[in-house]
């Protein structure tokens, strides 16, 4: 029989494994503000040769957590990789760019024991980097999930699609009899371009989950592209050094305030790096703030991303920069 110390240790580790998959999404999804067509939109349109990120740029990060679940000690939980890709196409066969994030727990024993994560987030944007068109999220670890968010700019609507999964259905006396059945579709149809994507499992064909917010602005980003576009914005001409940007999170479109703060030195891999600190928040939950430090040079590389996490704090620190 397990003693109380063993049980407590297992609960801590299970909590850590849950944070790994949750943490990246937590960075942007804690608010419920709805987009307004009347808000001013920053000019995000830059010529390709003026991007501070170059084709094939790969940013390597380490995700760490400190809090009650780790006895207030920092614990490394996952590796994160972010890549900028060119020569891509939108579903309408127009020129496009992609940003890709890959998160893995494979090098971290405790997180791997209880919830292996192999999570890929890929976003496709138009050639002006002003409109997110398609977001694909896939985890081939324990979770085995495959989701798509389609921003249908022609019909001004967001649509969610996912891999079909089995659900438990109860019946009989007091609902004690259970069986697994395939979940039902959300009522919409899967567009042809999505039918060409490889599936996790042939029996888990994509289904329409639900329709989301209407697109009421000319520019809408997603959480990952927001990090990259932050590198292109000029705050020097703004009196308040603050901008408002619409971001699609799941099937919601929300307004985020991005504020340029002070330049400060941070410690990365035992070295001091000078970074410019940015604060990201929404009107819905002003107490929930997220921070990004960009390198104080022309590349404006994200050095660190920090946020509150369950019962503690979480940081994603830059480890290396390479090219594909």
In short:
The protein has 324 residues and is mainly β.
Describe the structure.
The protein is built from 3 helices and 16 strands. The strands form 2 sheets. Strands 10-7-6-5-4-3-2-1-16-15-14-13-12-11 form a 14-stranded antiparallel beta sheet, with helices on one face. A two-stranded antiparallel sheet has the order 8-9. A hairpin with a 5-residue loop joins β2 (about 75-90) and β3. The longest helix has 23 residues, at about 5-25. The protein has helices spanning about 5-25, 110-115, 225-230, and strands at about 55-65, 75-90, 95-105, 120-125, 130-140, 145-150, 155-165, 165-170, 175-180, 205-215, 240-250, 250-270, 270-280, 290-295, 300-310, 310-324. It has one domain. The protein has about 325 residues and is mostly beta strands.
């Amino acid at each position: 029989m397990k003693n109380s110390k063993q049980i407590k240790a297992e609960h801590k580790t299970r909590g850590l494994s849950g944070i790994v998959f949750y943490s990246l999404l937590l960075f942007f999804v804690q608010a419920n503000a709805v987009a307004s067509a009347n808000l001013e939109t920053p000019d995000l349109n830059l010529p390709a040769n003026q991007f501070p990120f170059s084709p094939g740029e790969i940013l390597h990060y380490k995700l760490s957590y400190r809090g009650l679940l780790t006895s207030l000690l920092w614990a490394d939980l996952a590796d994160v990789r972010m890549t900028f890709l060119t020569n891509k196409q939108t579903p309408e066969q127009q020129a496009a760019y992609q940003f890709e994030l890959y998160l893995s727990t494979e090098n971290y024993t405790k997180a791997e024991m209880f919830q292996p994560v192999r999570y890929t987030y890929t976003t496709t944007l138009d050639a002006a980097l002003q409109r997110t068109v398609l977001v694909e999220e896939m985890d081939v670890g324990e979770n085995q999930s495959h989701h798509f968010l389609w921003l249908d700019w022609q019909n001004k609507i967001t649509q969610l699609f996912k891999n079909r999964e089995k659900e438990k259905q109860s019946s009989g006396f007091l609902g004690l009899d259970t069986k697994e059945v395939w979940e039902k579709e959300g009522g919409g149809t899967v567009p042809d371009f999505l039918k060409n994507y490889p599936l996790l499992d042939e029996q888990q064909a994509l289904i329409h989950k639900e329709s989301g917010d209407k697109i009421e602005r000319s520019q809408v980003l997603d959480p990952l592209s927001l990090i990259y576009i932050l590198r292109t914005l000029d705050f020097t001409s703004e009196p308040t050094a603050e901008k408002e940007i619409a971001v699609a999170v799941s099937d919601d479109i929300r307004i985020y305030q991005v504020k340029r703060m002070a330049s400060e030195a941070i410690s990365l891999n035992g070295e001091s790096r000078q970074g410019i600190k940015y604060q990201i928040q929404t009107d819905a939950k002003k107490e929930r703030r997220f921070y990004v430090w960009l390198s104080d040079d022309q590349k404006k590389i994200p050095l660190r991303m920090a946020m509150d996490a369950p019962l503690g704090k979480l940081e994603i620190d830059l480890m290396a920069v390479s090219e594909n």
